[in-house]
Prior knowledge:
Distance between the termini: 32 Å
Shape: globular
Order of helices and strands: HHHH
Radius of gyration: 15 Å
Amino acid sequence: SNRALTTRLAMALSALAVQMSWETAPTDILRLAGLSAGEGGGISRATVLDLLSSLPEETDSRRLVLPDERTRDSYRGGLRAAAPQVLPYLDLCISERDTKSGNNDAV
């Protein structure tokens, strides 16, 4: 299915991001999707969420062969640094989901 393929591609991109120490991957994903500026974009919200959720998961994957643990630690630092940009996007996703479902309770 398309969903399974999207998830596999997100995992592969995330593994590549860790191996390359692509520390700005979360913010780059939001920017490329056009979501950081609130203008929409060509990447579906589900795909963006798959990518954002797989980034930290792949960081902890022991199947990735890295030159040393400093690469993994450095990448984790990049993920922490991206939190101020990623968390508002996640909050927006929750708010829009709640609005569409009629659930206006505070999270």
